[in-house]
Amino acid sequence: MNVELTEKPKNPLIVCGVPGFGFVGNIATEFLIRHLKARQIGRIWSEELRPIAVVRESKVVDPIGVFYSEKYNLVVLHVLSDLRKLEWKVSEGILKLADMLAAEEIICLESVGDEDVTDMKTYYFTLNDAKKKQFQDYGIEPFKEGMIRGVIGALLLKRHEKVSVFFVEVHTNLGDNEAAAKLIEILDKYLHLNVDFEPLLKAAKELENALKDVVKKGHRTAAAQQLRSDINYMG
Fold first, then answer.
1. Residue 156 CB: number of other CB atoms within 10 A?
2. What is the pTM for the complete model shown?
């Protein structure tokens, strides 16, 4: 994975959310970008990414965009791509970005699926003992057992001390704005972002609907491409 940057902020904290249960990581990071008025400063890029372009407001959206809030010295990774089979390479790209910027920490936003969710519990995972105490003071439970797949699973397997993960329980496979809001609440406590929570759920719901639309269109495009490929192959 190539990391392409137009500027290199020093010692930022990196927040990343990747497609997962309920798309909560995507919803939360897109909300952060809008709330903080973060500007794009680069992308993580490879021609191995699926060649499906998302167009918004007459602009092409990068599959893995790098955004920056100068006020909070915060870098946000916005991922809008199917990363299957590229998990290890994308995780290497994230760590490469962190090294290039001498990032203080990488916070990953993830969800855990549960068919019987009543209160959407939140959890944390970190190898940093000082961070463990800090997260517990926020009322977040340690994540003790479970299976984490994908890019974040790859990051955890590298046992990088700068990587921490905030988890939230979800009960749906396509969009959970309330769960995304839970993650934003944790980040707000941790980073003092001054989030206005009254419109948060409404905004998160709008983002959820937008992501649903993008995913559905992406699935239709992929299916059409596969059909054309099959027809051409059959001759």
1. 17
2. 0.83
